[in-house]
Automatic annotation (TrEMBL):
Protein name: MYO1B protein
Organism listed in the record: Anthoscopus minutus
Name of a matching Pfam family: Myosin_head
Keyword line: Actin-binding, ATP-binding, Calmodulin-binding, Motor protein, Myosin, Nucleotide-binding, Repeat
Family label: Belongs to the TRAFAC class myosin-kinesin ATPase superfamily. Myosin family.
Protein encoded by which gene: Myo1b
Amino acid sequence: QDNSFEQFIINYCNEKLQQIFIELTLKEEQEEYIREGIEWTHIEYFNNAIICDLIENNQTGILAMLDEECLRPGTVTDDTFLEKLNQVCATHQHFESRMSKCSRFLNDTSLPHSCFRIQHYAGKVMYQVEGFVDKNNDLLYRDLSQAMWKANHSLIKALFPEGNPAKINLKRPPTAGSQFKASVATLMKNLQTKNPNYIRCIKPNDKKAAHIFNEALVCHQIRYLGLLENVRVRRAGYAFRQPYEPCLERYKMLCKQTWPHWRGPARAGVEVLFNELGIPEEEFSFGRSKIFIRNPRTLFKLEDLRKQRLEDLATLIEKIYRGWKCRTRFLLMRQCQIVIASWYRRYA
């Protein structure tokens, strides 16, 4: 119930993870259909980039204003930080404060004076502003680092490389919020170079008890995790997509015209293959570089046909080999019999 600076930066990280989830699942998938020339009706979804900008914007973001308060001369308190938030973020649709200049929140008596509230993608969270400045300003000062670096113990010395006199940096050490923001940026950059898979966990109840299913809690999580939009995109879109070349290479043995070699373009080969198999036209679409299959059952059917065809080909290879082996043995025995008979007749 009581959220401070620690929960604030954790929720900021969750926002960034949700943002990359949206980018890689909803936005990118719909853009791929448009890129490939597939007929598509855009499905609206909530993009939490506006919430991330509220927190991390270099000029008007909450972290930037917190750093500014920590660095400016004069008397700095949590209340002055909240006043600054009220001035800069007053009209932001995802920021709420009791003292905000936005009139629609002036009558909100449920919000204490020393708190502000952010409407995250997963719901509204209220933060106690007390301690924000001190926790963000929890710096490892230069003299402490230098003292630790002079220790005789090698491990302690290795833990404080910034204390090395040869690497003295006269700049003020970064704040806790700045360090966390940089770490999140590195994480996002790393994730964008990967092909991540997502597992969404739904809590059935708040009691961590078995056999209790809180329908309201589950619906709340499904709604705010973006699962409804994701399901709508998946149902309206295509379950499987693959470039023409590997698709033809994998399933070409299912059609006599494409097996064992197809001499024309890969897309034409896939078209011949799907027409030969009698797959309904509504089950697939041809993009500029990929084949799109709508339902998983169509893909399962292709895989079952391929498995059966591989078994048939294995049986055919085995049959031909056994026939060749028996014929070779027969011809050898026949030749031997002729030689034996000819020598027998010579001495008979």
